[in-house]
Specification:
With 190 residues, this protein is α+β, with helices and mostly antiparallel strands. The chain has a domain of 78 residues: S16 Ribosomal Protein, Chain: A. Helices cover 57% and strands 16% of the residues. The protein is built from four helices and five strands; from the N terminus they run ββββαβααα. It is extended.
């Protein structure tokens, strides 16, 4: 039977609490275990003594029998001085992925293009400065055009009012003759 020193999760939702247990490798994470040999409360500050508690004598017994700790438990045992954990080295972990490398190359190309572009575009900036007085002259003419635009809706408004005034007059004429709307419809149909 292969034994592990591992964490079994307890506690409420979003409030984790772990028991450090000795369990068979085949048993579920939070399921059956042989013995509880400590606790781990990640919600406590790192300098708190109750964050990790260990039964050192029982842990040493299970290690001598052949139990293997998981990486997280091995870290706790290393802090306590029970077992030495070798530092891991994964040089590929820090390397950026393929898409990040592509983005960096595109960014470098854009920066190089930006460095080369200002030297060539210097005469264009002078041309923009020369065009500025022409834009100011156009800005002086703009208020006259705006005034003409403002007057145009005012001229249209009386025409609409006149059309509105004529419509009731037609209705009044129909009322005076005593004709119904049905007579108008019949006359329009013929």
């Amino acid at each position: 039977m292969a034994l592990k020193l591992r964490l079994a999760r307890g506690g409420a939702k979003k409030r984790p609490f772990y028991r450090i247990v000795v369990a068979d490798v085949r048993s579920p994470r939070d399921g059956r275990f042989i013995e509880r040999v400590g606790t781990y409360n990640p919600l406590l500050p790192k300098d708190n003594a109750e964050r990790v508690t260990l039964k050192v004598d029982r842990i040493e017994h299970w290690l001598s029998v052949g139990a293997k700790p998981t990486d997280r438990v091995l870290r706790f045992l290393d802090e306590a001085g029970i077992l030495k954990r070798e530092a891991r080295n994964n040089p590929n972990k820090a390397k950026p992925g393929a898409k990040a490398v592509e983005r960096l190359e595109a960014k470098k190309e854009a920066e190089e293009a930006a460095k080369n572009a200002p030297a060539e575009e210097a005469p264009v900036e002078e041309a923009v400065v020369e065009e500025a007085p022409a834009e100011e002259a156009a800005a002086d003419e703009a208020p006259a055009e705006e005034a003409a635009v403002e007057e145009a809706p005012a001229e249209e408004a009386p025409a609409e009012e006149a059309a509105a005034d004529e419509a009731p007059a037609d209705d009044a004429a129909a009322d005076e003759t005593g004709g119904d709307d049905t007579d108008k419809k019949e006359a329009a149909a013929e």
